[in-house]
Amino acid sequence: MASVDGERWDEMRAAFEAADRDGDGLIDATEFEGFADQLALAADSRVARQAFGEIDRNGDGRISLDEFAHWWGGD
Predict the structure, then answer these.
(1) Which positions ≥6 away from 23 have C-beta within 8 Å?
(2) How many distinct structural domains can be found in the chain?
(3) Which CATH number fits the domain that encloses residue 50?
(4) 6-19 vs 65-72: helix crossing angle, rounded to 10
(5) Which residues contact 31 (CB under 8 A, 6 or more apart)?
(6) Structural domain of 60
(7) For residue range 34-74, what is the model confidence (pLDDT) as tens digits?
(8) Using CB atoms within 10 A of its CB, is residue 52 exposed (0-12), middle (13-18) or buried (19+)?
(9) What global pTM score does this model have?
């Protein structure tokens, strides 16, 4: 797991759970696009898809908690 601890871990975990709308423990591209839109992280869906691809380190089309933590922690 990436180096995110304490209060920062709690914030990251809450953000992950908010993005994981179906509660399956993974964030798919549609969930991420909605999350990015809510937080104004991406100007458009193309930018959101590009960011998703960078966060999805293993390229399986889903963001795991570990991948999200690496991104959140700036790793």
Answers:
(1) 17
(2) 1
(3) 1.10.238.10
(4) 130
(5) 19, 20, 21, 22
(6) 6-72
(7) 888 887 766 677 888 899 999 999 999 999 999 999 998 87
(8) buried
(9) 0.84
